[in-house]
Design goal:
- By secondary structure, the chain is mostly helical.
- It is about 75% helix and about 0% strand.
- The chain is globular and about 55 Å long.
- Belongs to the peptide transporter carbon starvation (CstA) (TC 2.A.114) family.
- InterPro entries: CstA, CstA_N.
C-alpha cells in the first residue's frame, strides 16, 4: 500500500508543478472572453461554475476505461501502475489540457475542427470520420459494460438494461446541457468519489497485499504470455492517456467561465482519473492471489465480475452496491456525452445549428440506430477496436497540440515526445494484433518506430507562423 500512496502523491504533486509548466507554455489570457459568454445559446454554450464544470468533465472522461482498463492491465503486474503515473502526468493530462484549451481558442470547436486548424483540411476530414467511429464505439462499449453490472444486481436481463440505458442516452443527448448533465452530474460525482475512496479504505483495512508480485516492475505476469509492449499501453488508456477525452473536452470548453480555469478542469480532471485508475489497478494486484486468479474471474464474467466481487467483499452488501453503482455511473455518464459529441461533430461539419430540437433529432436518430446494432457485437471484439481507435485519436491530438506550439514558437516537446511514443504504440499494435495485420513483434515494432520518425520529419516541415492568441 505504501507504493500506492507514493504513486498517488506523485499525481498530486504533478498537478501543482508540471500542470503549471504546461499552463505557462500555453500562455493563458484570463481577460479573453470564452465561448460560454460569446456564443451562449442555452443548449450547448453556457457558463457554469468551475466546480460543476470540473465534475462534469471528470464524469465525461471517466468511462469504463479507468476501471476495466487497469483491471486488465493488472494482469501484467506492477508495471501497470508505472504506466498509469507516467502516462497520466506527461501524456494524458497534457493531452486533455491542450484538447480543451485549443477548443476554447477555437470558439468551442469539436476535435476535427481543431485538428484541421493546425494540421490542415485533409487531417480535418480524416478526423471527422475517425472521431465519429471512436464515439460510436465508446457509446456501445459504455452501454454493454454497465448493463452487465446492473443485470448482476437486479432481476432484469442485460438486453433490458441496454434498452433502458439507450433511452437515457437519447434524452441526455437531446436536452440542453444544463437540464440533465448539469443538474445530476455533481451528485453522480459525489457517488463516484465515495466509490473510489471507500474501496481504498476498505483495502487498507483488509489484509490484502501484493501477494506474489512484490514491486517487480521488470517481470511480465500475464498468464497468456501477452507482451507488455505495446498491449499494456492500449489496454490502459483512460487513467493514463485517452483520445476519447479530446472529443469530450470541447463540451466543457463551451462552458468554462475563463481561461485560468483550464488547468483545474482539463489537467486536474485527468489527474483525478489517474487516481481512480490507480485504485482499481491496486485492487486488481492486491485482491487476488495471483495474475492467474484474476484472469480466471475475468474469463468467467469480464472485468465487470471483478468489480462486483471486490466491491461486495470490501464494503459489504450495501456499501458494495453503492460502489458498483459508482462504477455503473462512470460509463453511462461518458456514453451519453459520447453521443452528444458525435451529434455536435456532425452539426459542425454540416454547419447545422442545434438550437432547434428537430435538427438535433435529425442527427441523433441515425447515430443511435448504428449504436444499437453494434451493441449486439461481442464485447471483447468491440473493446479491442475501441482501444486502438482511442489511442490513435490521442496521438493525432498530441500532434495537433505540437503543431500549435511549433507554429507559435513555443516549446513543443511537451506534446511532441508523447506524440512520438503514442504513434509508435498504435502503429506497432495495428501491425501486431490480429485485428490488424498479425505480423511478427520485431517487424511490428520497427514499423511503429519508422512511422514515428516519418511523422517527426513531416512535422518539422510545417510552416512556422504566428498564431493569433
Amino acid at each position: 500500500m505504501l507504493w500506492f500512496f507514493f504513486c498517488l502523491a506523485l499525481l498530486v504533486v504533478a498537478y501543482f508543478t508540471y500542470g503549471k509548466i504546461v499552463e505557462k507554455i500555453f500562455v493563458i489570457n484570463p481577460n479573453r472572453k470564452t465561448p460560454a459568454h460569446e456564443l451562449a445559446d442555452g443548449v450547448d454554450y453556457m457558463s457554469m461554475s468551475n466546480t460543476k464544470v470540473f465534475l462534469i468533465q471528470l464524469l465525461n472522461i471517466a468511462g469504463l476505461g479507468p476501471v476495466f482498463g487497469p483491471i486488465l492491465g493488472a494482469l501484467y503486474g506492477p508495471v501497470a501502475m508505472l504506466w498509469i503515473v507516467i502516462g497520466c502526468i506527461f501524456a494524458g493530462a497534457v493531452h486533455d489540457y491542450f484538447s480543451g484549451m485549443l477548443s476554447v481558442r477555437s470558439n468551442g470547436a469539436s476535435v476535427p475542427s481543431v485538428v484541421g486548424d493546425h494540421l490542415g483540411k485533409w487531417a480535418k476530414h480524416f478526423m471527422n470520420v475517425f472521431a465519429l467511429l471512436l464515439l460510436v464505439l465508446v457509446g456501445v462499449v459504455f452501454v454493454t459494460g454497465p448493463a452487465k453490472l446492473l443485470s448482476n444486481l437486479t432481476s432484469l436481463n442485460v438486453l433490458t438494461w441496454v434498452g433502458i440505458i439507450f433511452a437515457y442516452y437519447i434524452l441526455a443527448t437531446l436536452m440542453p446541457i444544463s437540464k440533465v448533465i448539469g443538474r445530476f452530474y455533481p451528485f453522480f460525482g459525489a457517488l463516484l468519489l465515495f466509490m473510489s475512496f471507500g474501496l481504498t479504505i476498505g483495502l487498507i483495512m483488509s489484509d490484502k497485499q501484493f501477494y506474489s508480485y512484490g514491486l517487480d516492475f521488470m517481470t511480465n505476469f500475464d498468464t497468456k504470455g501477452l507482451p507488455i509492449w505495446p498491449l499494456l499501453f492500449v489496454t490502459i488508456s483512460c487513467g493514463a492517456i485517452s483520445g476519447f477525452h479530446a472529443t469530450q473536452s470541447p463540451l466543457m470548453a463551451r462552458c468554462i467561465a475563463d481561461e485560468k480555469s483550464g488547468r483545474m478542469i482539463f489537467y486536474g480532471a485527468m489527474i483525478l482519473e489517474g487516481a481512480i485508475a490507480l485504485i482499481w489497478c491496486t485492487l486488481g494486484l492486491s485482491f487476488y492471489e495471483s495474475s492467474a486468479a484474476l484472469q480466471e474471474v475475468i474469463s468467467k464474467s469480464t472485468p465487470a465480475g471483478v468489480v462486483h466481487e471486490i466491491s461486495t467483499a470490501l464494503l459489504g452488501g450495501v456499501g458494495g452496491i453503492i460502489a458498483i453503482l459508482g462504477v455503473v455511473i462512470l460509463p453511462i455518464t461518458s456514453g451519453d456525452t459520447a453521443f452528444r459529441s458525435a451529434r455536435l461533430i456532425i452539426a459542425d461539419f454540416f454547419n447545422m445549428q442545434q438550437k432547434d430540437i428537430s435538427k438535433r433529432l435529425l442527427i441523433s436518430i441515425p447515430l443511435f440506430a448504428v449504436g444499437i446494432v453494434l451493441s449486439q457485437v461481442d464485447f471483447q471484439t468491440i473493446w479491442r477496436y475501441f482501444g486502438w481507435a482511442n489511442q490513435t485519436t490521442a496521438a493525432i491530438m498530441l500532434w495537433t497540440a505540437s503543431a500549435y506550439l511549433y507554429k507559435s514558437g513555443k516549446f513543443h516537446w511537451i506534446t511532441t515526445v508523447p506524440a512520438l511514443f503514442m504513434t509508435a504504440v498504435v502503429m506497432t499494435y495495428l501491425a501486431y494484433e490480429k485485428i490488424g495485420f498479425g505480423l511478427d513483434m520485431t517487424v511490428s515494432t520497427v514499423i511503429g518506430i519508422v512511422c514515428s520518425v516519418v511523422l517527426l520529419v513531416l512535422f518539422f516541415r510545417l510552416p512556422k507562423n504566428a498564431i493569433s492568441e
